[in-house]
Amino acid sequence: MAINATIHKVTVNIADIDRHYYQDHELTVAQHPSETDFRFMIRVIAFILNAHEDLHFTQGLCNDDEPELWQKSLTDEIELWIDLGQPDEKRLRKASSRAQKVKIYTYHERKAKVWREHYQKHLKRFTHLSVCHIQAEGLESLAKRSMQLQCTIQEGALYLTDEHTEVLVTLQHD
Question: Does domain 6-148+162-173 have CATH number 3.40.50.2000?
Fold first, then answer.
C-alpha cells in the first residue's frame, strides 16, 4: 500500500524589502513521502523568494514534466520555472525551452559545488537561467503540518521565523 503525501497548511507573511513586495500567502503544500523536511522547507523558501499571486506548487517529485513551482500567464505560457537540487542537462534544456525564465535553487553545498563545476559551461548557454544556492542551518525545525511564518528579506538575506524559532537563510547567486 502506498504512503500518502503529508499536507501542510502554511501561512506566510512576506516582507521582501529588496523587491518591495509585502504580502500574506495562504499555502496548501503536499510533502511527498520520500521528501525530507529540509527539502520541503527549501520549496517553501523558493516560493517566498519568488512570491507572486500566479506562482503555484506543482506535482513536483510526482511528475517529471513539471518543475517544483511555476508561474503561468493567462494564456498558459510558463513565465517562470523553478527547480531544486542539481538537474541534469536534459532537464535544463527542457526548462529553458518551455519557460521564459528558469531558476534553480541548490541546497546541499558539496553536491551543489560538484554540480556547478560539472555543468558550468552548460549553465552559461542558457541566458534566461539563474542559479542560487540556499544555505539554511536548522531549517527543518520549522516544518510542521500547520505553520505560521514571518519572513523578512533584506540585502540578500532571508529571516524566517515562527513563534519559537528564527532561521537565517543566506543566498549565494551564481
Answer: no
